[in-house]
Design brief:
Elements: H1 2-34, H2 36-39, E1 43-46, E2 49-53, H3 93-109, E3 132-133, H4 135-149, H5 153-163, E4 164-165, E5 176-178, H6 179-189
């Protein structure tokens, strides 16, 4: 028994150090060396002040700003410590009620807008933290934001176009707009 136990414990200890300590340190070090901004959380600063992260959705509620995807995190929206989806299936009445309520809120904020509401403005992402919306969702809100800020609609649409990110490596994902960065670009326009 002793001859079997000693090698097993030695292997257990060696693998614990290797996979529990050395490997995480090596990956963290490589990440910080090769991708320092991303490894630090892709933090966004303006005028020396931290305003958010480009990786985590922000909660904008003023009609002067573009709104992001709804967040299913609890107890507050965009809570990075509670990342999760709503886990409501497509036939769940609670999901249907939530979507109807979100559509009503969008219609109330912009009563003249009769265009179909893009799905990403009324459904939460799987993580509940998505910082992006589709270009269609941004264009849907453009008239409201332009009116609230007293800007020409063409200028707001130009900011949307300039803020639209393409597919990763022209292959993966879909075009998207980072809501925080778009709203910061709006604030610079005044």
């Amino acid at each position: 028994m002793k001859t079997l136990l000693r090698p097993a414990l030695t292997l257990f200890a060696a693998l614990s150090v290797l996979t529990g300590l050395l490997y995480p340190l090596a990956v963290t070090g490589a990440g910080q060396a090769l991708f320092p901004r991303q490894a630090a959380g892709s933090l966004v600063e303006r005028d020396g002040k931290l305003v958010g992260s480009a990786l985590i959705g922000q909660n904008f509620s003023s009609p002067r700003y573009f709104w992001g995807r709804p967040s299913a995190t609890a107890p507050t929206a965009n809570n990075a410590t509670a990342s999760s989806g709503s886990n409501l299936g497509p036939l769940n009445p609670a999901l249907s009620d939530a979507v109807k309520g979100r559509i009503a809120a969008l219609r109330a904020a912009d009563p003249g807008n009769t265009a179909p509401v893009p799905a990403d403005l009324v459904t939460a992402s799987a993580s509940g933290l998505d910082p992006h919306i589709t270009p269609a969702a941004a264009r849907y809100q453009a008239a409201r934001v332009a009116r609230e800020r007293g800007l020409p609609l063409d200028a707001v649409n130009g900011l949307i176009e300039a803020s639209t990110e393409g597919r990763d490596w022209r292959l993966f994902g879909e075009p998207r707009v980072n809501v925080l960065e778009l709203n910061l670009a709006l604030d610079q326009r005044r």
